Amino acid sequence: MLSREDEAAAEKGDLEVRREDQDKINKFSRLHQREMLLEDDLKSRAKEKEDLEEISNELELADEDEKVPYKLGDAFIMLPLPEVQQLLSKSTHKIESSVSATEEKLSDIREEMNSLKVDLYARFGKSINLET
Q1: Which of 20, 27, 63, 76 is the 20 to 30 Å CA partner of 107?
Q2: CA pair distance 42, 47, nearest whole angstrom
Q3: CB 15, CB 25: distance < 8 Å
Q4: Rounded Cα–Cα distance for residues 126 and 47 (Å)
């Protein structure tokens, strides 16, 4: 909590920024950047998962004996339908595990950011804006 003098100084904008305060502000900024990158990554993985599920649903309508093009790297190869369905299933599970790991990282980052917010708002009050 701020003392009455610190609170008055914070309202005037005269509060001195200490080295440890600046370190916390910098850390918050880095965490915020990382959070934004992880959120973008999460959105792209969710879209990729949605696309794979849509493709899987479409392949359920295909003939069992039919060969289907499957993309490996930059090339498409013709594979039997059951094999393609199995590969799509593996890809979906891989993305799901990646999404859960990314969500866990995001949760940890947000916890740390909230802790820094509490410390910095306690020190600077209304004279600092950490809302993202």
Answers
A1: 20
A2: 9
A3: no
A4: 39
Beta-strand (E) ranges in the chain? Answer: 67-72, 75-80
Assessment of whether the complete model's pTM goes beyond 0.90: no
Residue type, 76: F
Orientation of helix 19-59 relative to helix 81-124, angle to 10°: 160
Q: Which residues contact 67 (CB under 8 A, 6 or more apart)?
A: 78, 79, 80, 81
SS3 for 63?
Answer: coil
CA nearest neighbour of 53 among 113, 23, 2, 96: 96
Residue type, 123: R
Spatial CA neighbour of 116 closest among 11, 52, 14, 35: 35
H or E segment and range at residue 14: none
**Residue 38 belongs to what H/E stretch?**
helix 19-59
- Partners of 77 in beta bridges: 70
The Cα–Cα gap between 4 and 24 comes to 23
Question: Which tokens go with 75?
Answer: 């090339």
